[in-house]
Design goal:
The complex is a heterodimer of chains A (123) and B (382).
Chain A: E1 8-9, E2 14-19, E3 22-27, H1 29-35, E4 38-42, E5 49-50, E6 55-61, E7 65-69, E8 74-79, H2 81-85, H3 89-92, E9 101-104, H4 114-120
Antiparallel strand pairs in A: 1-2, 2-3, 3-9, 4-6, 5-8, 6-7, 8-9
Chain B: E1 14-15, H1 19-24, E2 28-32, E3 35-40, H2 44-53, E4 55-59, E5 64-69, H3 73-80, E6 93-99, E7 105-115, E8 118-123, H4 128-137, E9 145-148, E10 153-159, H5 163-168, E11 173-174, E12 188-193, E13 196-201, E14 210-216, H6 220-230, E15 236-238, H7 241-250, H8 286-291, E16 299-304, E17 316-318, E18 328-335, E19 342-348, E20 358-363, E21 366-373
Parallel strand pairs in B: 1-3, 4-15
Antiparallel strand pairs in B: 2-3, 4-10, 5-8, 5-9, 6-7, 7-8, 10-14, 11-12, 12-13, 13-14, 16-19, 16-21, 17-18, 17-20, 18-19, 20-21
Helix pairs in contact in B: 2-7
Classes of the chains: A alpha+beta (123), B alpha+beta (382).
């Protein structure tokens, strides 16, 4: 389990784990809970260039569709094949095995701290 | 409001008499027609599968119960509703429609005959007042009373292959007018729960065997808990409205506001059989139904597709990849939990309604192929 206090967050309910120039991105437990059971995940291709703030994927539950936003400008270096095969990982382990993509970036934009994100979702 | 923690919420929200049971069970809530109802307890997929393979317990206390009673009750219903209710037997149930003068659908409902001159109508929560107002207005000239008893009733449904065994084992349920084991589908019987009146109907909205239980709201929690206890060794789980929606969609059952609206003729929705044009009396909407929907009016079909990307309500249907205007719209759609592929109900132009027709669904900008199929998508093995 990822230590969520070490993560950055976006207002679009994504978490970002920064390791050097690589950002690992997933959606938060709060977002997964709101979506309900995730049944389909569409992720960008490895090697594709993404622009921060744009929609780069979809997370579908039985009830609704959530969009995945790129939290940073960069290049996708990996996608989580396990979550494509088993979308329920987004619900069962959103901060760990349910990670979605890794993006190599140059500069990190301003992101939310754990405290700021907690305030956003009212917890 | 019945629970301490609900009293802090806005006064416009309504709460089921079972609200605290749902809070205790860790439910997530959703607004449904002004009611705060459980959308899921843990996982809507798990709850869906439980109903298909074992059993699920639903709180449907938001639904409306309207009692019709009086010497003219049967004749009144033949006039007020689309079906011929006068011919149903004592303790029989019938699905029917409340039509507008123009042939559109005000509500779809289930009518239970509780006596020669006594019927219970169960209407959708969102249509409670529209249905009651129409029913009351149509009572003029009939010796009948039409009473909205929605606030007095709780409704609990136990659905799934284990439903019979669970209800049979539920403590406190006595005085059954009909042995549960011999009770047919779409029948109802009177009974008692802890000495108070209970109605047990073999009806549901899931495509599985099951029962719907009507009783006074004050006793709802005790019955809910008794059912959960009886179901503890029969894999009974509480199930929320999210699973109810995917279950009814697989079973091809229409949902008011989606497949049925004030602008939908019954025949368009495949419900022509519900309208008894054979009955001799006039009924509200008869003239419009006899004239029929306009030529070329869209019709309801089932759609199935490959892959995992489901078309959802309001997504448009196209006859080809490059067609510029849409030829239909999805009214309900999901990745079917039981079948594993996308299913949808949609209104399409009549020339696309033939089984096997290939169409395209615009899934957020991408046209994905789908095939017209017959309803229901899922039918239980009896």
């Amino acid at each position: 389990m990822t230590d969520t206090s070490q993560l950055h967050y976006t207002a679009e309910h994504e978490w970002i784990l920064v390791d050097g120039s690589i950002a690992t991105v997933g959606i938060t437990a709060y977002a997964a809970e709101k979506l309900g059971d995730v049944v389909f995940v569409e992720l960008p291709e490895v090697g594709s260039t993404v622009a921060g703030g744009t929609v780069i994927g979809e997370i579908e539950s039985t009830k609704s569709v959530g969009e995945l936003f790129a939290p940073v400008n960069g290049t996708v270096t990996a996608t989580n094949d396990a979550v494509v095969e088993s979308p329920e990982l987004v619900n069962s382990d959103p901060f760990g095995a349910g990670w979605l993509i890794k993006v190599e970036f140059d500069t990190l934009p301003t992101l939310l701290s754990p405290a700021e994100y907690s305030a956003l979702i009212g917890e | 409001m019945t629970s301490a923690d609900s009293s802090t919420l806005a006064s416009t929200e309504r709460f089921s008499p079972l609200h605290q049971a749902h809070v205790d069970a860790g439910a997530s809530f959703t607004d449904f027609a002004g009611w705060q109802m459980p959308v899921r307890y843990s996982s809507d997929l798990a709850e869906h599968h439980a109903v298909r393979t074992e059993a699920g317990l639903f709180d449907l206390s938001h639904m409306a119960e309207i009692l019709v009673e009086g010497p003219d009750a049967a004749a009144y219903l033949d006039y007020a509703l689309a079906g011929k209710l006068s011919v149903i037997e004592l303790w029989q149930a019938k699905y029917s429609l409340l039509l507008a003068e123009n042939g559109g659908i005000i509500d779809d409902l289930v009518v239970y005959r509780l006596g020669d001159t006594r019927f219970l109508i169960v209407a959708n929560a969102g249509n409670r007042f529209a249905a009651f107002d129409a029913l009351r207005a149509r009572a003029d000239g009939f010796a009948v009373s039409v009473v909205d008893q929605s606030d007095d009733y709780a409704l609990i449904a136990v659905q799934g292959p284990n439903a019979l065994a669970i209800l049979d084992a539920t403590e406190g349920v006595t005085d059954l007018g009909t042995d549960l084991h011999f009770m047919k589908y779409y029948r109802i019987t009177d009974a008692s729960f802890l000495g108070q009146p209970l109605l047990v109907a073999r009806t549901g909205y899931t495509g599985e065997d099951g029962f719907e239980l009507y009783l006074e709201a004050a006793r709802a929690r005790e019955l809910w808990d008794a059912l959960m206890s009886a179901g503890a060794d029969k894999k009974l789980v509480p199930a929320g409205l999210a699973s109810r929606d995917t279950l009814r969609l697989e079973a091809g059952m229409p949902l008011y506001g989606h497949e049925l609206t004030l602008n939908t003729f019954p025949a368009q929705a495949g419900l022509g059989r519900v309208v008894s044009l054979g009955k001799e009396n006039d009924f509200v909407g008869r003239g419009a139904i006899e004239r029929g929907p306009e030529v070329g009016a869209s019709v309801l079909v089932g759609l199935i597709a490959a892959g995992k990307r489901a078309g959802r309500a309001d997504y448009e249907i196209f006859r080809s990849l490059d067609a510029e205007t849409s030829d239909g719209v999805i009214t309900s759609g999901a990745l079917s939990p039981t079948l594993g592929y996308p299913i949808a109900m949609a209104y399409v132009t009549p020339d696309l309604a033939r089984l096997g027709t290939e169409v395209y669904v615009d899934v957020r900008g991408t046209r994905l192929p789908a095939t017209v199929t017959s309803l229901p998508f899922y039918k239980r093995v009896k």
